[in-house]
Amino acid sequence: MKRLLALLVVLMASLSLGWLAATITQPPIHALGASPEDRSLAYPKARKADQVDRYHGIDVPDPYRWLEIPDSEETRSWIEAQNSLTFRYLGKISQRAPIRRKLERLWNYERYSVPRKEGGRYFYRKNDGLQNQSVLYTVAGLTGKPRVLLDPNRLSDQGTIALANYSISPDGRFMAYGLSTSGSDWMEWKIREVSTGKDLKEKLRWIKFSGASWGRDNRGFYYSRYDEPKGTPGPADTHYNQKLYYHRIGRPQSEDVLVYERPDRKEWGFSPRVTEDGKYLVIHVWKGTDRRNRVYIRSLEDAASKVVPLLDDFDASYRFIGNDGPLFWFRTDLEAPRGRVIAVDIRRPARSNRREVIPEMAETLEQVNLVNHRFIATYLKDAYSLVRLFGLEGQPAGTIDLPGLGTVTGFDGKKDDSETFFGFAGFTTPLTIFHQNLESGKRQLFREPSVDFDAGAYETRQVFYRSKDGTRIPMFLTHRKGLSRERTHPTYLYGYGGFNISLTPRFSVSNLVWMEMGGLLAIPNLRGGGEYGEEWHQAGTKENKQNVFDDFIAAAEWLIRHEYTRPSQLAIGGRSNGGLLVGAVMTQRPELFGAALPGVGVLDMLRFQKFTIGWAWVSDYGSSDDPDQFKALLAYSPLHNLRSGARYPPTLITTADHDDRVVPAHSYKFAAALQDAQAGDAPVLIRIETQAGHGAGKPISKVIEEVADQWGFLVHTLKMDLSDLETADSSRTGKN
User: Fold this and answer.
1) Is 716 known to be catalytic?
2) pTM for this predicted structure
3) HSE-up of 560 (CA within 13 Å, CB side)?
4) Which of 9, 130, 386, 443 ranks highest by number of CB atoms within 10 Å?
5) Annotated catalytic, 694?
6) Which of 576, 623, 624, 667 is catalytic?
7) What is the pLDDT of residues 165-215, one digit of tens each?
8) Which residues face 476 on adjacent strands?
9) Which residue of the set 317, 694, 709, 716 is catalytic?
10) CA atoms of 691 and 156, how far apart (whole Å)
């Protein structure tokens, strides 16, 4: 299963917070983006209840608890009133229309995913430009005529049904695929015959956080699911007791065979993978978002065989790469925080018998693929990609040169394959697909998107700065060439900093439009991410979480001190865990920022574990159930650190009423509390999307609308001049 996610980060160093705090006074109200119409904002009334919770002897009020009930009449009325206020406000921003046109024009380009090969056929996704969902194609050869295999755009009028995942049978005859509706993590899986494009009768339900792995006889596949819930699933339904099943094609789900379950370990989940030789089922046993996992196996040559533990100490991360009979290869961070490759003989799996194949290096080992009887190893060096080749005994076998500073994806294939595909992207380079012949070393361009902008007009460079405790943090700066240092610039500082996720160079139309509007894009690689391995990750978790916020604040201070921007021109953004980041730093240092965009954020750090899959984040955040962790959480929880009478920067909160990962109650409660606390005239708005979820699978039309609203809000509050953008748009469209 692909992790959804996505996330951005980079920090910059400053000497200490004291230096900047001494030189920056509380800005006048106009510096916070207030305008006459802002001062007349009348926020919808939010009832304050007398709810008080007691944590380890400390009473904590929660007056907006009622907003956790998403479908109550009171909550729905509040949502409607908030959206009415927000869209009325945004509708008065004249710059929003040209921004939207710009987004539509730049988004209207052909883009492709990295192809996969199965059963002698290639499979990839393509979007013609403004299609709400990308279309899945198949083709028999590199020069053959592609054929549509699945077009999700035909499944709903508004493009709100997305192809969340798919898996092709080894012979290329069948495709198992999962559909997600309105951005939900829940998927309904179906089976399609590749040659005819017709679906079989069965449907598989109650699947979440799972892919599918076919048996080598092509008769069925392994997948994981939850028990059917009682009634309609809601935010208070926590997801426990995932079970591993085998589905035989042509049979109803009720006849699926239960392969493995652990009712004594309700938090465990199971990701199945059949080995390429078809002899073994490898089961990655996961527990929430903890990077540590277990690995169990089952022989598929003996129908009576049982699932048995192989790596059962829960002491490190283990990712199965491939095997040669009983010899299994894993990427692990055991005794190697930046990753290495080990060989495990499943007949003698004790730690003393394991053998190191590729040792830990200075760079972080991101992934390893076994193709053409060699390992293709992708590394991160200061958050950008390097690719090295190794023989099966670990001997260096060269490198794959990349077009520049960017991010590489792909390299799928089988042990005997002589070819593979990979994609390369950068901040101003859209995902470009290459075909790599691993025997000759020859590389050829497979698909190169054409976007209506001049990439040569932009530049990216990496700087390093010091955080509060002296830690050296990298940050990417991207902007138009010739950026004047004689004046400051509107700057968008975007971060994430969590869950071992790395923010590497990626192409984004949204960010490109920001830069075309004259803005500077700054992305720091904060602790909590995976850029420098597991030690870097752990330095931003649990009681160390404040390091992440300090890193981000230091990035802002560095940008100001080096005169790239000033507080009134500095906007911050982040989504999910990045939304937590924005909420935390804007409550800790409200005077430092000119605007804030917290998206689908985790903002109530005392109750996040009580909803849907929130319990899974305890490995990164800790839990309010633990006395020491509670103190750390309370110290930075955005909801609980709002101060009545403080002046916070202009804020546009974004969430979705169908988000079943970070439930929207986080954003609802934070918005209500922030509006009540705000002393200045700077606007505090919440934009609540309907028929959408956490972000994955969101229709392009909805993405464009949301980004246009966010950039319009920043243009208005940061007082940006968009005359150049409007002139350019007029010249292209012929309008005056």
Assistant:
1) no
2) 0.91
3) 24
4) 9
5) yes
6) 576
7) 999 999 999 999 999 998 889 999 999 999 999 999 999 999 999 999 999
8) 462, 523
9) 694
10) 12
